[in-house]
TrEMBL record:
Presence of the UniProt keyword Hydrolase in the record: yes
Name of the protein in question: Probable periplasmic serine endoprotease DegP-like
CDD domains per UniProt: cpPDZ1_DegP-like
Gene3D superfamilies: 2.30.42.10, 2.40.10.120
The enzyme's E.C. designation: 3.4.21.107
All copies of domain PDZ, residue ranges: 279-370, 410-492
SMART domains cross-referenced by the UniProt entry: PDZ
UniProt keyword Transmembrane helix, yes or no: no
Highest taxon of the lineage: Bacteria
NCBIfam families documented for this protein: degP_htrA_DO (TIGR02037)
Length: 504
């Protein structure tokens, strides 16, 4: 190698070294070496072994058994005499019937789930679906002991069951306590312990993925969502926070494959605790009730009522002589808070009311005709057997019916209510308003479900008796700059609902 080549090589090496040094300085200044900013918040929690060891013995495997009826035998098919398959089928079904005769006795089937002890006296919480239809229920403990359990009470609405075992002499049970699920935030760490696929004492860790999930499993859906692995057999098991408090009861998963895909749901502790207390005291759930039918406040309804934004629950109808009626609540009121709790939307009001103790006097904040008012009412008890009657369809007008003078507004043909129209549409005597004779196809009114035979009872909380009343009210709304009109609509049976239609 000549001197020039050596010099060029030395310069190259020096340049490379300089670039590496510059890169090192740049990387260090950008934080590329060592953990990036916020990494401590991104990593998992410190070991949960101590917390798990403290609560593991309180988690039990729930095993059940039940007797099922034998399956029906398949009759031997009738074949034409001399058929080439006659002998084959006779032999086949003869063997089949002999086998079924042996298996025709009632069979015992078993299933597995999870649960947890909440009281050293032997009270255990699990899901109702874990023990549904069971003839025998056993709690299997971590130390290998097995105790027969008695069903104290169940609540199908939130899928909770309370069991009771009798602890063995000198062997007190380990119990866990409930925590406050309302303080949980999305991203908080949680751990689930249960009996997935029969593998008892299994612990998984994850975070709260979402709150207040409605999965259409019942009227009081308010689930915590977690990505902690929950599988079949985890049902009824506890979901713990990092302090070892139960903040949820694992109940359901979304799983196309049958295994965990990181979407599990737990009943929040604050939803379950009052129900468990009622099951313990009464053997049944006793929910609050006020006697209203409600509907969602849509953006159009919010605009028509000058609410600013969709919020609260709109009262569509009030049960006569019910707690709400006695407390002064009226159709058209928008409930903003109940017993000091904010009513964010329609779905939250039934949950709040159901969790309120029966016979408690509460304050209700409503918006009525643009003004906020405070009312007081005493919460009643929900009768679970109550079922709303189906609404009959309005009958078609008879071909020979006399012609009725109508006025077209809002995509509706409207007429003044007469005795003839009351009879034609079978409208109850106590109902008043303007009759809908026809609905323009494809109109907003048609999309909102308004039908012939309905009554327009109010427009923006002002009573209407004639189509002219509605026209005047619409003109006033236009002058006020309103884009929507809030209609109180009644069907012939008197079922009330509200809907907003554009005034133009």
């Amino acid at each position: 190698m000549d001197a020039a080549a050596g010099t060029r090589g030395a310069r190259a090496r020096t340049g490379i070294a300089g670039l590496l040094l510059a890169g090192l300085i740049a990387a260090t200044s950008l934080g590329s070496f060592g953990p990036p900013a916020g990494a401590a918040a991104m990593k998992g929690p410190d070991s949960v072994a101590d917390t798990a060891a403290n609560v593991m013995d309180a988690v039990v495997n729930i095993s059940t058994s039940q007797t099922v009826a034998p399956s029906r035998s398949v009759p031997t098919p009738e074949l034409p005499p001399g058929s080439p398959f006659e002998e084959f089928f006779e032999e086949f079904f003869k063997r089949r019937q002999q086998q079924q005769g042996e298996d025709n006795a009632p069979r015992r089937v078993s299933s597995l789930g999870s649960g947890f002890v909440i009281d050293q006296a032997g009270f255990i919480v699990t899901n109702n679906h874990v023990i549904a239809d069971a003839d025998e229920i056993y709690a299997n403990f971590a130390d290998g002991s097995k105790l027969k359990a008695e069903l104290i009470g169940r609540d199908t609405k939130i899928d909770i069951a309370l069991l009771k075992v009798t602890p063995e002499e000198g062997k007190p049970l380990k119990a866990v306590k409930f925590g406050n699920s309302d303080v949980l935030r999305v991203g908080d760490w949680v751990m689930a312990i249960g009996n997935p696929f029969g593998l008892g004492g299994t612990l998984t860790v994850g975070v709260i993925s979402a709150r207040n999930r409605d999965i259409n499993s019942g009227p009081y859906d308010n689930f915590l969502q977690t990505d902690a692995a929950i599988n079949r057999g985890n049902s009824g098991g506890p979901l713990f926070n990092m302090d070892g408090d139960v903040i949820g009861i694992n109940t359901a998963i979304i799983s196309p494959s049958g295994g965990s895909i990181g979407i599990g749901f737990a009943v929040p502790a604050n939803t379950a605790v009052p129900i468990i207390a009622q099951l313990k005291e009464f053997g049944e759930a006793r929910r609050g009730w006020i006697g209203v039918r409600i509907q969602q406040v849509t953006p159009e309804i919010a605009e028509s009522l000058a609410l600013g934004r969709p919020r609260g629950a709109l009262v569509g109808a009030v049960t006569e002589d019910g707690p709400a009626a006695k407390g002064g609540l009226k159709a058209g009121d928008v409930v903003l808070s109940f017993d000091g709790k904010e009513v964010k939307d329609m779905r939250s009001l039934p949950i709040i009311v159901a969790d309120t103790p029966v016979d408690k006097e509460v304050e209700v904040v409503v918006v009525r005709k643009g003004t906020e008012e405070k009312l007081k009412l005493v919460v009643g008890r929900l009768n679970e057997a109550e079922v709303a009657a189906a609404t009959p369809e309005a009958p078609e007008a008879k071909p020979d019916a006399p012609k009725v003078e109508t006025q077209k507004l809002l995509g509706l043909d409207l007429a003044e209510l007469t005795p003839e129209l009351r009879t034609r549409f079978k409208i109850k005597d106590e109902l008043k308003g303007v009759v809908v004779m026809a609905v323009e196809p494809g109109s907003v009114a048609a999309e909102r479900g308004i039908a012939p035979g309905n009554l327009i009872v109010e427009v923006n909380q002002e009573a209407t008796a004639t189509p002219k009343d509605i026209e005047n009210r619409l003109e006033a709304l236009k002058k006020d700059g309103r884009r929507s009109a809030l209609l109180m609509v009644a069907d012939p049976e008197g079922q009330i609902r509200f809907t907003a239609l554009p005034v133009d």
